[in-house]
TrEMBL record:
GO terms for molecular function: 2-alkenal reductase [NAD(P)H] activity. This is Enoyl reductase (ER) domain-containing protein. PANTHER family: NADP-DEPENDENT ALKENAL DOUBLE BOND REDUCTASE, PROSTAGLANDIN REDUCTASE. It comes from Acacia crassicarpa. InterPro entries: ADH-like_C, ADH_N_2, ER, GroES-like_sf, MDR_fam, NAD(P)-bd_dom_sf. The lineage of its organism: Eukaryota, Viridiplantae, Streptophyta, Embryophyta, Tracheophyta. Keywords: Oxidoreductase. Residues 35-348 form the Enoyl reductase (ER) domain.
Amino acid sequence: MEKKNINSVEEVKNKQVILRDYVTGHPKESDFYISTSTIKLQIPPGSNAVLVKTLFFSVDPVMQFHMRKVQHQHLDGYQYYTPGSPINGFGVAKVVDSGDPNFGVGDLVWGTIGWEEYSLIQQPQQLFKIQHTDVPLSFYTGILGMAGITAYSAVYEVSIPKKGDRIFVTAASGAVGQLIGQYCKLMGCYVVGSACSQEKVDLLKNKLGFDDAFNYKQEPDFHAALKRYFPEGIDICYEQVGGKMLDAVLGIMKVHGCITSCGMISQYNIAEPETLKNVMQIVVRRLTVKGFTHRDHHHLYPKLLDTVLPYIRGEKVVYVEDIVEGLENGPSAIVGLFSGRNFGKQVLVVSHE
């Protein structure tokens, strides 16, 4: 690589989203602030780091765990944020400079990057090089990114449905749920989803191809609602909500059914987790309950691309995104996730370049 005169390297402003302090309960916009520093558009001499310009960020519920102060951070694998420093998350970026032979200037990548306009990646092995640019680059924050790995592994690896299975998907209009439902439909299943508004219910039924859906906020009795849609019981529940919804699901499952969970968003910001009354149904109905995260399934990414790219190109799968423009609107986008404000996968656009 040609040596550069470090004194002639361009220095630019670098807008960042900073965590003000550790967060308890629901995150608020005031928990963050926007700061502008400067950065040189060159990696440090001798470094194997990669310097990237951010294009898109994925806004994910899991980010709130990174905002908390915990004693044993090494046990759960999360990359916790440091107050006074930029937060980080999954994003799509363009390589500006590189000391890693696997990445060249101009390459497009996705992976964990700082919430800033330019980010120095010290561990570039965590980045994925984007080889397919005939689909929207923003898809690498979702259907072809972390959410995509979660949904793909849920259906094709963790709990594989059979044709004719009765499937229930909670948080069905979100980044993961919308994909799980469509993949199950492609496998010949009957699929019902729950969501938090009539607009999202209409999306599931009219655009995403779910057999049915309901607004859980309008259902005073979750058990009765599920019995209405699953009179013979549920074969597989892909669960992301927890609490009262999970308790109702336990009482509707078929014998030898499976509950597969990658999140429980209703429990994230309450002082005491809700008590489940139907836990004995796990025994009575001989249920399998599986918890998982995307972190155990990144090895499936080549298979995901082989399967999902043809779905996208053939318009067999629809992916709905909720686009927010501007890094300064990042805190609002994060907070909106926990009130259901987003409509589809929440994406933050930093640059269109």
